[in-house]
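Worked example 3 (structure in, sequence out).
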């Protein structure tokens, strides 16, 4: 499982401290090991697991951990996230971090029990299906019968209305239009009787319909109740099994301190798949073998996930949602770098003002500066804080991503702020972004509209993913400006909505342009040695909320 690096790296090629696994770019020695892993994967190293990594959505995150053995020789371990081809153990890769014997003692029986409950629930669903269909058909027939009866009664009412003379009550009896009083009374009585007969017919129909539905509806309700009880029992048993599964992970650090998975995430529950990522597997394997961890890197291999955001052969930082608490503990006892804090503001505190009057101010935000304060005190510096140093009541009307530079509008009072926010909400602000893509859109694509709904990746904030079910609508118009030497391209983005990371995801996703923006550390190769994000908000145009005239600004 341990592969030695050849040629042996010199002491100067090794990091003085364990680099943070959450940094954008891994240490060069970890990159070297990752490149060897990619070469092995390209040669079929994952085939032993029987996984089809090239199937749509079938790719997987792999990892390498550079280590030193007891003799000081430098090599690396390999691991994959989760299972590979339905297997936890694949030759050449680190085993899972859980206690396999402890899991084997309860999981097969527990899984079988869940399967029995699932099959019983499915059997009840199958039994209920014909009843549900029959009731639906019966409901449709009864509705048609009710419509037919209503139409017949409407015709009768019209006839009675005409028989009464088409008007209200007259002298000599109800609805009499004149003539003999006795005959009119008899006619009115007959018409009233006919009306009552229609009412009785309606009531009889309702009773007959209800009686016809009673037995099958009661049978269906009983089946649904039994299935609901089974599903509740299965969910409760599943929760117990999940806790048992989580308790099979007892993770050590370099000091030999061991913590349970559940303890590491308290007071929250561990997210799904926590402990099964490549990083925890690698560190657990290293500690078990008495190896000293030196540097870690993770690389995606295979087809991108259906939600997008991963590309074969690209290096990515460890996810903070699932691995933050785990790796924070497992690196204890090592001399390790602190995780990077994105949003620590770059450069001088002065902002370049593009436009200003008594109601609003438009500034050019530099890349790397938050628009508003972060959730922790260490991210207090931001565009808004810098604006308020000059204008204490300033409020930003919209936001740019941390890594994006360009124009941001802020109001100097609440009334102007509300008006500006209304303009953005109604999409009455024209915005243009310039971007450089890692590769040009395929031939024949000179522009178009991208519609991919987005939501936050709950396990790896602030990343966004495409989700057709739960995502919010996101629409981007784009236009190719120039194909550049080296295969890159310049494009213009005209966003019609303003979702977080919208342009970056729409550029990188296979169903979008399939061409990440240069320098994108989250969705492209920016975290793999790239520079700044080549995305800039270059122009804004909107009706000034106080003056009523159109204001067009360019950075």
């Amino acid at each position: 499982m341990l592969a030695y690096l050849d040629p042996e790296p010199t002491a100067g090629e090794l990091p003085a401290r364990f680099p943070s696994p959450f940094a954008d770019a891994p240490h060069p020695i970890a990159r070297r090991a990752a490149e060897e892993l990619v070469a092995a994967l390209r040669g079929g190293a994952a085939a032993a697991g029987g996984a089809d990594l090239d199937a749509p959505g079938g790719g997987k995150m792999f990892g390498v951990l550079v280590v030193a053995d007891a003799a000081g020789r430098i090599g690396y371990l390999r691991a994959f996230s989760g299972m590979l081809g339905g297997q936890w153990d694949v030759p050449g890769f680190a085993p899972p971090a859980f206690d396999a014997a402890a899991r084997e003692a309860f999981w097969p029986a527990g899984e079988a029990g869940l399967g029995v409950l699932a099959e019983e629930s499915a059997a009840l669903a199958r039994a209920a299906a014909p009843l549900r269909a029959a009731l639906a058909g019966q409901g449709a027939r009864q509705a048609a019968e009710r419509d037919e009866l209503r139409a017949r009664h409407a015709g009768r009412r019209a006839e009675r209305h005409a028989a009464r003379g088409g008007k209200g009550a007259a002298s000599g009896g109800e609805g009499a239009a004149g003539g003999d009083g006795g005959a009119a009374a008899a006619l009115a009585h007959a018409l009233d009787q006919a009306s009552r007969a229609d009412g009785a017919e309606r009531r009889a129909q309702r009773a007959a319909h209800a009686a016809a539905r009673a037995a099958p509806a009661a049978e269906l309700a009983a089946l649904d109740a039994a299935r609901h009880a089974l599903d509740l029992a299965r969910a409760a048993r599943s929760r117990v099994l999940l806790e048992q599964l989580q308790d099979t992970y007892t993770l050590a650090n370099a000091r030999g301190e061991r913590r349970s998975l559940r303890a590491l995430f308290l007071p929250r529950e561990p997210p799904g798949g926590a402990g099964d990522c490549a990083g925890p597997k690698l560190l657990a394997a290293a500690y078990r073998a008495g190896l000293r961890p030196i540097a870690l890197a993770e690389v995606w291999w295979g087809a991108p996930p259906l939600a997008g955001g991963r590309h074969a052969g690209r290096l990515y930082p460890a996810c903070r949602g699932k691995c933050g608490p785990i790796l924070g503990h497992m690196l204890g006892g090592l001399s390790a770098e602190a995780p990077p804090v994105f949003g620590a503001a770059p450069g001088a505190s002065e902002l370049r003002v593009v436009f200003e009057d008594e109601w609003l101010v438009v500034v050019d935000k530099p890349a790397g500066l938050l628009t508003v304060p972060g959730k922790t005190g260490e991210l207090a510096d931001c565009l808004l804080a810098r604006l308020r140093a000059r204008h204490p009541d300033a409020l930003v009307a919209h936001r740019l991503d941390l890594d994006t530079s360009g124009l941001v509008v802020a109001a100097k009072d609440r009334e102007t702020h509300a008006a500006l926010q209304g303009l953005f909400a109604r999409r009455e602000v024209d915005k243009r972004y310039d971007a450089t893509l890692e590769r040009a859109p395929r031939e024949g694509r000179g522009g178009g509209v991208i519609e991919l709904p987005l939501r936050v990746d709950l396990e790896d904030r602030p990343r966004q993913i495409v989700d057709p079910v739960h995502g919010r609508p996101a629409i981007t118009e784009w236009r190719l400006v120039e194909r550049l030497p080296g295969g890159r391209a310049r494009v213009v983005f005209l966003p019609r909505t303003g979702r977080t990371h919208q342009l970056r995801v729409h550029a990188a996703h296979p169903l979008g342009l399939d061409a990440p923006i240069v320098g994108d550390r989250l969705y492209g190769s920016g975290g793999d040695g790239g520079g700044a994000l080549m995305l800039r908000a270059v122009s804004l145009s909107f009706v000034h909320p106080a003056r009523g005239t159109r204001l067009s600004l360019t950075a």
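Notes: DSSP finds nine helices and 19 strands in the chain. Residues 395 and 414 are 7 Å apart (CA to CA).
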